[in-house]
Amino acid sequence: MCYGKCARCIGHSLAWLAVLCIVANILLYFPNGETKYASENHLSRFVWFFSGIAGGGLLIFLPAFVFIGLEQEDCCGCCGHENCGKRCAMLSSVLAALIGIAGSGYCVIVAALGLAEGPICVDASGQWNYTFASTEGKYLVDRSTWSQCIEPKHIVEWNVSLFSILLALGGIEFILCLIQVINGVLGGICGYCCSPLVQFGCVRVLFYAMFCTAELGEQKLIYLVFS
């Protein structure tokens, strides 16, 4: 396969996931489509961490666009010295992937904390508080307790659904960026786009070199690779 095409596929997927994260995060500001709770600051504090907008959204667009730009129409001859710049581009994409890992990881962590703490709402005593904060997330599996939140209506369902979406989307983004780290390293070392036979041989050399590092030491490894 061509490493650039794989990167482009990952880039397009990340771009769409980033858009969905931003939409999900924005919806958290408007429970039941109402704006008054945001203006009155009666939203979960984790909503204001912008995990979907910044972490799973804007920080993901950077690696997404970088990955999309890696694949070119002409993918021939990439194993030659004349196109070694493409290998450097694949290796540099690893840095963009690490940014994506940081952003998606932030999204996952904040979403998980938001789910564990639960929403802020008006309880039976008429006070605004985090009704489920002391349950350590156990309220998630006990829907009978959700009626303790009187206002906003269905706020528990709203928060649980959207934070769960952010958690899932962030997790997928994290996995895709991790895959691109591996893809970028292999593409940079083995060649941007090689024939299956050359790719297989290159991967064999990599694994052989890793084995030799442990068995023979650095000096013997250099001798074996370049002899």
Structural class: mainly alpha
**Helical stretch tally:** 7
Sequence of strands across the biggest β-sheet: 1-2
N-to-C terminal Cα separation, in Å?
28 Å
Strand segment count: 2
Subcellular location: Membrane
InterPro entries: L6_membrane
GO cellular component, one term: plasma membrane
Keywords: Membrane, Transmembrane, Transmembrane helix
Descriptive notes:
The protein is mainly α. The chain has one domain (3-30, 50-72, 84-192). 65% of the residues lie in helices and 3% in strands. It has seven helices and two strands. It has helices spanning 3-27, 36-39, 51-68, 84-117, 155-190, 196-216, 218-226, and strands at 120-122, 128-130.
Entry summary:
This protein is mainly alpha-helical and 227 residues long.
Topology:
Blueprint: H1 3-27, H2 36-39, H3 51-68, H4 84-117, E1 120-122, E2 128-130, H5 155-190, H6 196-216, H7 218-226
Antiparallel strand pairs: 1-2
From the structure above, extract its key features.
227 residues; mainly alpha; 7 helices; 2 strands; elongated; membrane; Transmembrane 4 L six family member 1; L6_membrane; transmembrane helix
